[in-house]
Specification:
single chain, alpha+beta, seven-stranded antiparallel β-sheet, three-stranded antiparallel β-sheet, 8% strand, globular, DDR_Repair_Kinase, PI3/4_kinase_cat_sf, Kinase-like_dom_sf
């Protein structure tokens, strides 16, 4: 059976809706001169408000999907049913607002750090102000307008479920009360409301309110290593899960006899058809968990081999960044093939843990999950809760000390900054916080040693990939540690491309993340031993000429450069200046010229390979790995 992409199924449904709307317009206008455009041609003429213009790639996708429907009608119908039901797993209104508030707080912290030279005088930037005002104006509007956004002709079972949920929320007096309070608190018309730290205080207040409402704190963290039945029982008592048959009847009734549909992401790497795992059924319980910066829904899918595979349904509202992450993940999957073939990397069990990520709609993805995984940020919050400490206390203390020094008419010197760090480490976040968590989680010495050994190799791999491939900064909420194995998978890794130039940005003072807490867990012997050895062995593996890593890099970087050109601010400005002349999508004007594309791709590949060769050629006392590992 041929692989079928769920995202292509969603695109096909959008195209069918667009065609039906155009046919309805033609019938109402009764103009025989207007014809349905043929595949491969551009559309011109008036369109209905809100309709999606079918571009050439969409027409080609439509033809492919029609061919697939003729060959595999049952599989395509089943995939369309599954995609329709995914809309039932969208976030509730309070979860959406909570996610947006966290994004706003992160933006404010970034602005505050840039203006740390004048803490008390820092004002809200226009971009941040626009983001917060949009958040205030759209508080609950997306839920309220679901009924009008879904056409009665094409409404699915999932859309009807969302409409019923929207009606219940709109009639909820608590919703209207919170909306009024939210609008009042974020009214910037009063004097003094434009101060940055005043906005940070309000955002933290509302984050606490909404976290208490959605019960976002991981109360079940101590139960994550229980069996499936006991784990579900604990979540049911905490009301953090629901029955799938209550919202998704089609998924509840789906089984292996309905259609032979493979697990999401089975076709991301080629293998023999006998080894593909089919969906036997969807398990009856769905969890609500806080991962990937949102309130995700965790599905449990039983394969035909009897094993249960957890997947997260994640709402993704940044389509371009999501595709950029998928390109990096696909590159890491292909590099694992080389690590298994080379002796030094194979004997060290060098293998990057890469989660399966599959787009099922323009704003929703299925992400492979591990029930026992915790991010570094989750570990930090758990230890802070044990000490009865607010997670943001170190940040608040940092700016309080800076403001106190600046109030005396001076600027914070290096000695003052070092004193702040010592105060935070001694009273709030000790250097041994991560190691203490590991010792508590793994009381057995053998289990602790094995966990630390695997974690050390994984940290070396992730740090090396971040340094060699010029990936984005690794934040604590991006690194997920598997408590059952010590493996680490990273979410939202992207190439660090300069938005203005379209080139890889390699000017970073810190090459990768190896903080004091990570160093205490790995120990100095681990850094100079397996950590450094794994880095050098991996770099030499990638430098092997027979593996032709350059060819993979060129293929990936080509898509990255094309994506940058399409979504960069420079191109958007050119497209706006072009006006109606560039209104059609998919035309030649939206693609970068061949010579410019080749030049940018070759420059990016050369930048990456130069670092690979530099690290692979080092040895002994001249090795650069200890320097990198020390963070210098």
């Amino acid at each position: 059976m041929l692989p079928v992409d769920p995202a292509a199924v969603a695109a096909q449904k959008l195209l069918q809706q667009n065609q039906a709307q155009q046919q309805q317009q033609q019938g109402q206008a009764q103009q025989p001169g207007i014809q349905q455009p043929a595949p491969g041609t551009q559309q011109h003429g008036n369109e209905a408000v809100g309709s999606i213009k079918a571009t050439e790639p969409m027409w080609r996708c439509s033809r492919i999907m029609h061919m697939q429907k003729e060959l595999h009608p049952t599989v395509l119908a089943s995939l369309e049913g599954i995609v329709d039901q995914m809309v039932c797993f969208r976030e509730y209104w309070d979860e959406v607002v909570l996610r947006q508030l966290r994004q706003a707080l992160a933006k404010c912290y970034a602005v505050a750090f840039e203006n740390s030279g004048a803490v008390s005088e820092a004002n809200i930037t226009p971009h941040t102000l626009s983001f917060v005002k949009k958040l205030v104006s759209t508080f609950g509007i997306g839920i309220e307008n679901i009924n009008s956004s879904v056409s009665g002709q094409f409404a699915s079972a999932g859309s009807e479920s969302l409409a019923r949920r929207a009606q219940a929320i709109v009639q909820d007096p608590v919703f209207h009360k919170m909306k009024g309070q939210f609008t009042t608190d974020f009214d910037f018309s009063h004097l003094g409301q434009m101060k940055l730290h005043a906005l940070i205080h309000k955002l933290k207040k509302w984050i606490k309110i909404l976290e208490a409402r959605v019960k976002n704190f991981p109360k079940h963290a101590d139960c994550e290593r229980l069996s499936y039945g006991l784990y579900i029982g604990v979540l049911w008592k905490l009301k953090r899960c629901f029955l799938i048959e209550e919202k998704c009847r089609y998924l509840s009734n789906f089984n292996l006899h309905t259609a032979e549909v493979e697990l999401p992401g089975e076709f991301l790497l080629p293998k023999h058809s006998h080894y593909y795992i089919h969906i036997a059924r969807f398990m009856p319980m769905v969890d609500i968990v806080s991962k990937h910066g949102t309130a995700a829904r965790r599905l449990y899918i039983r394969g035909h081999n009897g094993r249960v595979y957890p997947y997260l349904v994640v709402s993704d509202y940044s389509l371009s960044d999501a595709r950029r992450e998928e390109r990096v993940l696909q590159l890491l999957r292909m590099l694992n093939h080389f690590f298994a073939k080379q002796k030094e990397t194979s004997r060290r069990l060098v293998n990057i843990s890469v989660s399966r990520v599959v787009a099922v709609s323009p704003q929703m993805r299925l992400v492979e999950d591990n029930v026992s995984s915790l991010s570094l940020l989750d570990v930090y919050k758990l230890r802070c809760a044990k000490k009865r400490l607010e997670p943001d206390t170190p940040i608040t203390r940092y700016y309080e000390r800076l403001a106190a020094v600046q109030a005396r008419g001076a600027q914070a010197s290096h000695q003052v900054l070092r004193d702040i760090v010592r105060e935070v480490q001694s009273a709030m976040v000790p250097r041994t916080m991560l190691r203490d968590w590991a010792l508590t989680t793994f009381p057995n010495p053998t289990h602790y040693w094995t966990f630390r050994k695997i974690l050390t190799v994984q940290l070396a791999l992730i740090g090396l990939m971040e340094y060699l491939l010029h990936l984005s900064k690794l934040y604590p909420d991006m690194m997920y540690i598997h408590q059952d194995s010590g493996l680490i998978n990273v979410a939202y890794f992207k190439f660090n491309i300069d938005d203005a130039k379209g080139e890889i940005d390699g000017n970073r003072p810190v090459p990768f993340r190896l903080t004091p807490n990570l160093t205490e867990l790995v120990t100095s012997i681990g850094v100079s031993g397996p950590f450094t050895a794994s880095m050098v062995a991996t770099a030499r593996c990638l430098a092997t000429p027979s593996f032709k890593v350059n060819a993979l890099l060129r293929a990936i970087m080509k898509d990255e450069i094309i994506s940058w050109h399409k979504f960069s601010s420079i191109f958007r400005q050119q497209r706006q200046e072009g006006g109606a002349a560039e209104s059609t999508q998919g035309s030649g004007t939206s693609s970068i010229e061949g010579e410019a594309l080749i030049s940018r791709v070759n420059k990016a590949v050369t930048t990456i390979t130069s670092r690979i060769q530099s690290l692979a050629s080092s040895d002994g006392a001249d090795s650069k790995s200890p320097v990198l590992g020390s963070g210098k």
